[in-house]
Amino acid sequence: VNESRTFPDDFLWGGAIAANQAEGAWNEDGKGVSIADVVRGGIISGVSDKEIDSDKYYPSHEAIDFYHKYKEDIALFKEMGFTLFRTSINWTRIFPNGDEKEPNEHGLEFYDNLFDELIKNGIEPMITISHYETPMHLVDAYGGWENRKLIDFFSRYCEVIFNRYKNKVKYWMTFNEVNNMHKIPFAAGACRIEDGPDKLQRVYQASHHMFVANAMAVKLGKEIMPENEVGCMLSLSAFYPNTCDPEDIFGAYQYRRRSLFFSDVMLRGKYPSYTDRILKEHNITIEKEEDDDALISENTCSFLAFSYYLTSTYKAGTPIFESTGGSMGYENPYLENSDFGWPIDPKGLRYVCNELYDRYEKPLFVVENGLGAKDTVSEDGKIHDDYRIEYVKKHLIEINEAIEDGCEILGYTYWGPIDIISAGSGQMQKRYGFIHVDKDDQGNGTLKRVKKDSFDWYKKVIASNGEEL
Ligand code: BG6
């Protein structure tokens, strides 16, 4: 292990959240209903209510009230020394239903104010354009990304936000964890695709529409803000073969391709050669328009952003359908699990960085990594989260190793630097933050912010540009 741990001088340090998991204010200032606003058990669960029941608790409706408290929170991020902060623009603040012709000015103003506040504090905003918060109307009236019409709605949305924020936001990402289309099509693609014989046909068709939309966003980006970067974002927690049985090894390789397929298209600009066999074996026909392939090939993303939390293993005989992202395959006896059952594997992050840089030779951005844990407030009112410090430290050491290996890594945004609601369960008790928020799973609490021990530690890491871990 390299002891000196030099990170590049321009390495970007910060944290990442998503609008729907933090902002709250779900129906204020003209905001429409997003897919995250109709779920009570986490957007990833995909279980949504047809009508919002005002007697029930919906985690996104208030979340941690970042919408009203962002100044206080940004002051804390500044204190930690963030140079970058990743959040998403909630599509429904800009286009409440998704298919309007004109944007909602109040929503645009909110993000102007938010970005100005960040910039004023020396923090660059980084934006996810669509982070599991598609307008619900696009699901009800169009069927989400299964419908090609979404390409136009998304392009209009991109055009508006690129024009508006081109001088404030340099790094953009199109779809959060787009490879999760297989596993969680409601969150990732706003589609209600159940398991069934036509599932893969529908997933690949919807994904194609997203590839075209991604290319459109890159094209618009080049026209409207040529100095800025439009990247793609995938869930790329690693997957290993469970044993050295060649069947496990090749199976794991095939499985991983179900994820890398997405970055292959968006970074290399074409459907990879292994696609044909997948389509043939599953009777899938992707309907394309004449110019789709050219558009995709001429407009590839300039960087690859990804989330990394855990690793799992693949055993032969398991169907190879999904994405490897957060999949839970077979247990790895060499790893310990988090409080929430996620295997902790810092070395896997070095492995993934190398895997991705070898494949694409495009800059990488670690935009999500973190430990969701059951924190307790001690009698002294503090939160002693040395386990979180351990987790981040070990992962940063491996990022540094990957940089030494030759990978170009632009930055690190820790997931949930302030406690937010969980995408997986809607709970508050799965806490990632360096900052504690007083709120429980039923929505009770003062929303008061308190620094955890990890706060000062992360501050020291950033101040030393990663030398003091
Ligand atoms: C990623 C998502 O899948 O994992 C985030 O992009 C999410 O939105 C994060 O919050 C952690 O998952 P969870 O379920 O612990 O919130």
UniProtKB/TrEMBL annotation:
Transmembrane segments: none annotated. It is an enzyme of class 3 (hydrolase). Its EC number is 3.2.1.-. It comes from the Bacteria. The keyword Hydrolase applies. The active site is at 368 (nucleophile). GO terms for molecular function: hydrolase activity, acting on glycosyl bonds. PROSITE patterns: GLYCOSYL_HYDROL_F1_1, GLYCOSYL_HYDROL_F1_2. Gene3D superfamilies: Glycosidases. Keywords: Glycosidase, Hydrolase. Pfam families: Glyco_hydro_1. Belongs to the glycosyl hydrolase 1 family. This is Glycoside hydrolase family 1 protein. It comes from Salinicoccus sesuvii.
